[in-house]
Amino acid sequence: MAAVIKKVGVIGSGQMGNGIAHVAALGGFEVVLNDVSADRLKSAMATINGNLSRQISKKLISEDARKKALALITATEKLEGLADCDLVIETAVEKEEVKRKIFRDLCSTLKPEAIVASNTSSISITRLAASTDRPERFIGIHFMNPVPVMELVELIRGIATDDATFETSKAFVTKLGKQIAVSEDFPAFIVNRILLPMINEAIYTLYEGVGNVEAIDAAMKLGAHHPMGPLELADFIGLDTCLSIMQVLHEGLADSKYRPCPLLVKYVEAGWLGRKTQRGFYDYRGDKPIPTR
Ligand SMILES: NC(=O)c1ccc[n+]([C@@H]2O[C@H](COP(=O)([O-])OP(=O)(O)OC[C@H]3O[C@@H](n4cnc5c(N)ncnc54)[C@H](O)[C@@H]3O)[C@@H](O)[C@H]2O)c1
């Protein structure tokens, strides 16, 4: 039987974590937001406030809803602060060893009946579930970026996920006003299995000199009616996340067609990770983005 979710923990307060906290609080859930960095938590709370205000100016929510949502969110640097949550969504960096350690530490304090979810973009839910004490109450709940704007959430069952966990997660996501696509547990699921090879191919197109950054983005915006060019989108997702997803596809499906472009590797090695570090395929430090190639 599906359980009732009241209190939601979110681990990682980066661009996805603050978005998930935002929509969960607007949906009326109590939210505990966790990060290893106090600075990240502080800036996440400021981002949530700013994004709620933007929704007010677009007349999507009321001032009262903003106040209520903010009052429902608390921030903590300690995982113990999540012990009495009914559902915990992990959305820390896309590194398997980091996630596994989080799950080990979390499960030692979290109440046994709670559901644990990962917002991973690509890592096997079955494998992550196996690093917890509750594979049957573990599930992939994959939000899209930016969370308050995008309609879709992918739900991914691991091999052991039980029906109650699936139904409870489905009800939670529906209460947030999102649509669900159910994906089997294969590398990168549905959206990123299709999207990331396209972005990687755009980077190869740049790497091989077929077009420059502006030409490639203009081509896909004006020639295929994509709302953002693929390189602009890569910067938006984060180039480290893009590289991690390509590595998971490459290793998980053992097919050379998924090999990450060496230029993507170079940008990540430079620490040019896109918007979040102010530089990627575009430089965001000035008034308007300037292509870096
Ligand atoms: N960026 C996207 O478009 C997107 C979309 C869907 C899913 N995701 C997935 O969401 C996750 C987070 O991505 P993001 O873009 O928000 O990354 P991000 O770099 O913006 O944020 C990651 C946050 O995790 C924190 N963190 C690192 N280790 C931690 C730990 N041990 N405990 C608690 N917090 C920790 C960091 O301090 C940081 O604030 C990844 O798994 C990513 O694949 C990303």
TrEMBL record:
Where in the numbering of this chain does the 3-hydroxyacyl-CoA dehydrogenase NAD binding domain appear? 7-183
Residues folding into a coiled coil are none
* Record Pfam families: 3HCDH, 3HCDH_N
Q: GO annotations under biological process?
A: fatty acid metabolic process
Instruction: Give the binding site residues for NAD(+).
Output: 12-17, 35, 94, 99, 121, 145, 276
Quote the InterPro entries the UniProt record gives: 3-OHacyl-CoA_DH, 3-OHacyl-CoA_DH_CS, 3-OHacyl-CoA_DH_NAD-bd, 3HC_DH_C, 6-PGluconate_DH-like_C_sf, 6PGD_dom2, NAD(P)-bd_dom_sf
What is the designated name of this protein?
A: 3-hydroxyacyl-CoA dehydrogenase
Q: Which source organism?
A: Rhodopseudomonas pseudopalustris
Q: Taxonomic lineage per UniProt?
A: Bacteria, Pseudomonadati, Pseudomonadota, Alphaproteobacteria, Hyphomicrobiales
